[in-house]
# Entry
Amino acid sequence: MFLQDYNVYVNGEQDQRRGRKLKIDDHVEVEDVGTFIVAKEN
# Structure
């Protein structure tokens, strides 16, 4: 499972919950993958 294989951080805090609701401007960092910022679709 992805969350067991990688450390995931949301807004600087480690999070391993499935189904977390992300909001605009949340920063998601996945170790060894990259950092992403949640944006509103135009």
User: Anything to note?
Assistant: Residues 24 and 38 are 5 Å apart (CA to CA).
